[in-house]
Amino acid sequence: MSRFITSCPVVRKALRGLFTCCVLSLLLIPVSAGDANYFTLEQVTTLPSSLSSLLVQSPILINVPAGATLSVTLLRGSTVVATSQLKFTAAYSNDRLVPPVPVASFYPTGSNVGPGQPLPGSTLTPGIADLDAVAAALNQYQLLWTLSDGVIATPSRAIATSPSSPLNLVDLKLAAISAAVRPGDQKPGSVLFYSRYTSSASNPAREDSSLSLSNTNLTDSVYVRLFLINNTCQPAEYTLCLGPRNTVSLLASDIDPGSRGYVVAVACDSSGQPIQFNWLTGNVTVKQPNPVNGAPYDQMLSAVAVAKRSGGAVTPTSGVAEMAFDDTMYDRLPAQVVADDVPSQTGGLNRTTLMVFRPLPDLTGGISGTTFRVTGNNNVGTATSADVSATSVCYRDIQIGTLRPSPTGISDLIPPGSTAWFSVAPTDNLPVLGAQFNYGRFSSGSTMRALSYAIDYRIRITVTVLTCPQ
């Protein structure tokens, strides 16, 4: 079919016009590895009732390494209809691709269309779908465009063909982009950091945590290695296997009773290598006793998600893979975090705790000690600081009411009826993450947000073959 389209003079002329339109509207977005873009399908010309193909033509810019895969999934709402895949066995780069060729294709149910080679060193495997249903309700469908490695600019139009009408244009309008630029608790990622878990071995009804992890990908499964780092600094590791759209919840009292700490979740392949899979989300619901009145209360903390920016797996050396959080392999990690709306600690009505940690540089165990500088700022612009040592522990609970900052004490910084905000930053400028908890008149908890980012940080993970628990 693609040979017919590019050899027919009428279609060739139309495609030249389509290409010119794309050149004149380089509002086209270069999509990098790990991004996922959603496009709505909008009719340009009246579509025939029966279609023989739906072809997404090549954009102007393609620059991908060997092994890169472009997946274009046809969705009806959130339901997967079919997926077209373009795999590159050799590196390919072209910023003036003329004439355009299909980089994604869909054919009617019952078609016997095998893989083709639209570009050198590539294999295009088409998707099979009920294209007549697509033509009848085009605005109910969308395309999900994902790239495993490299950069490809997204096209602005697709071509629908039929025996009676070989060229019908369909606009592709960008509807949503899945991933954020920086790590945060409002996006999916390939690595998740849960800032707290706790459980009581003797009374989990009073103190426990529920860890939730979800795979938001519509089509792909993933292995997840879960590392629970408690006060011994020796991680307990668990392997999870999540299918498309699957979710799992684990009780800390079942997997690490009587412990308190933080959790790191890493998307991996079956050999245990960290991979780019920017589809993981999660949260933890923490039940712990209120030190003001002893009553247990719950807080839900969203996991901080970190995207893998480079495609493929992290190549191990001597059985160890090193994940670089440097905005090249993975997003950078926070170097300074902030706690908001900290109330007065005077009179015992409120107690605020900042739980802060630096991820272990080696997930087989050890200590990532540092000194944290805690700076408080009140509502009249007064600032005061204190250094808190965490050189021999793997996380630190900082009680705001027990700090001895200079030049202003906590009771003077936050007198009754007022609030302050606090920043926490390691004195060595390396990463920090954490959560804040307030116990008292308003009992609450939240993940601390980043104010600045560390330049580079490395976390090592031993590579081991993974199996799914039964």
Shape: elongated
Oligomer: single chain
For the terminal residues, how far apart are their CA atoms?
46 Å
Strand content: over 45%
Instruction: Count every helix, treating DSSP H or I runs of 4 or more residues as helices.
Output: 5
Structural class: mainly beta
Q: Kindly report the spatial arrangement of strands forming the biggest sheet.
A: 9-6-5-11-2-14-13-3-8-10
Number of strands: 34
Q: Roughly how many Å is the radius of gyration?
A: 26 Å
Described by strand count, sense and barrel closure, the largest sheet is: 10 strands, mixed
* Average residue pLDDT: 86
Q: Which spans have pLDDT < 50 for at least 5 consecutive residues?
A: 1-27
Report the helical percentage.
under 10%
